[in-house]
Amino acid sequence: MKLVLLGYMGSGKSSVGTLLSEALQFQFTDLDHYIEMAEGMSISQLFQQKGEIYFRRNEATALAKIISEENKMVVATGGGTPCYGTIMADLLPNEDVVTVYLKSSLETLTRRLFAEKSKRPLIAHLETEDLLNDFIRKHLFERSFYYNQASIVLACDGLTPEAIVEKLILKLF
After folding, report:
1. Which of 100, 116, 117, 115 is nearest to 156 (CA)?
2. Does the predicted model carry a pTM greater than 0.90?
């Protein structure tokens, strides 16, 4: 079984994924980290030097490779991963894959991301919470079609990563 975590940046995919993999004794893979190690540069450097199309193709290939492994695992994807090409169409019919959308409200995402925007190149230039809120709102509008196709949609507002893991395990088993 592969549990593939989807959601916007700041939704907790990496934090929840780490805890979930420990609780289930599954391998954990952060897709962005996997790509960074394979490419020898950060995601922001990949975007700057090779472009988004290159990155998205690389991301799709990396995810397919990870999913093809025999291990039980939890995979934390990037926020845009399910929106590119045929990724969702490839994941959904796979009987060994359960996709999970960690759904957080616009307000929750804005609050979380504003506090850590300096660590995230995509949003570092947004100087006010209102600008960040508009940026996230646009992305959520564009991406919600893909996110909401997940096998499990889990509302995460007001929950700690531990509570999300507990709630998810109850839904899975």
Report:
1. 100
2. yes
Q: How many domains does the chain have?
A: 1
Spatial strand order of the sheet with 152-155 comes to 27-30, 73-76, 2-6, 97-103, 152-155
Q: Output the pLDDT for position 91.
A: 95
Strands 27-30 and 97-103: unpaired
User: What pLDDT is recorded for position 124?
Assistant: 84
Given a contact cutoff of 8 angstroms between Cβ atoms, the answer to whether 102 and 154 are in contact is yes
Q: In whole angstroms, what is the distance from residue 98 CA to residue 111 CA?
A: 29
Element (H or E) spanning 64, and its range? helix 43-68
Query: Domain with 116 in it: what CATH number?
Result: 3.40.50.300
* In the predicted structure, residue 120 carries a pLDDT above the cut 90: no
Range of the domain at 136: 2-172
Radius of gyration of the chain (CA): 15
